[in-house]
Amino acid sequence: MACYMQVLYFCIPFREQLLDYYENNKNVGDAEENLLTCLADLFSQISSQKKKTGVISPRRFVQRVKKQNELFRSYMHQDAHEFLNFLLNELVDILERETNAANASPEASSSSSSSSSSSSEKVANGPSNPPVNGVRKDPFVTWVHDSFQGILTNETRCLRCETVTARDETFFDLSLDIEQNSSITSCLKNFSSTETLNAEDKFFCDKCCSLQEAQKRMKIKKPPSILVIHLKRFKYIEHLGRNKKLSYRVVFPMELKLMNTVEDPDTEYSLFAVVVHIGTGPNHGHYVSLVKSHNHWLYFDDETVEMIDESTMHKYFGSSQEYSSNTEHGYILFYESLGRSS
Ligand SMILES: [Zn+2]
Q1: What does the angle CA 136 – CA 140 – CA 337 come to, to the nearest 5 degrees?
Q2: Which of 4, 172, 219, 333 is most buried, with most CB under 10 Å away?
Q3: Domain locations in the chain as residue ranges
Q4: Does domain 172-192+223-342 bear CATH number 3.40.30.10?
Q5: CB within 5 A of ion ligand 1: which residues?
Q6: Does the active-site annotation cover 11?
Q7: pLDDT digit string (tens) for 63-111?
């Protein structure tokens, strides 16, 4: 999954946090080698090379990634979308284990007593989540979350009593269903379209204390700093009994405005990386990445890198005909938040 190393390196907030992590932990002698330390090592090597020359040589970058790739080899056959989720969750788990270990060590005992008083304070102010088995567990938030995590809210309106029930869920990426000749904006619109729950799919309304027809809508409550959009190009086709790749043309803009947010409709994003799947099917494919660096787009393919013109990005949108010789399709898109324009 070399394609991700370039993409993640160009996720600026993520890179900065990872380099901070490296600085704070490089002198810990007995640290075990894991995905996090390897990624931190890799990023630090690339960034120190940048200090020497002022620029990152993409070729050197690729060589470094290749060396580090031994570690990722066992995950190579995973789908790129699964791999990203695996990687981010693995980093969160490692950070959580380290924090727990630090809190359990004797010198941290004084600070842990203060943290327990602050958590009881939160309970006194009314917990948003009821305690489970009497133990309230705060969700563990790391700098991985700061970069990638957003919050979706699932609003369900009972059609009998009109009560709206909102349920929040966090995400590292949005998986969107795609249609032929569409765009990210229309896919996001479909993602947030109102769905009616009826017949066998009724909703249990707490107020009516019974199953009722309801309308459901998904909105983005907290847009993430880095918005990762996964296009569902692999679809299980029942009569084929296998996954098929959809080569649909889905236009992705360089600048994206999120419209399906709870508030702040002018959350703007700029595209800075694309993971491209090359090939006709899920089992015979190859990934490359397109990354924007210093206003130029770079095309990374395992051991090679070349500069491409932004005007050629449309080649990766997909094909408007089912059979096309072009099999390079944008699969996972990375947008960075430009902040709120309003
Ligand atoms: Zn109701």
Answers
A1: 135
A2: 333
A3: 1-96, 172-192+223-342
A4: no
A5: 158, 160-161, 205, 207-208
A6: no
A7: 666 655 555 555 555 678 888 888 898 889 989 998 888 888 765 444 4
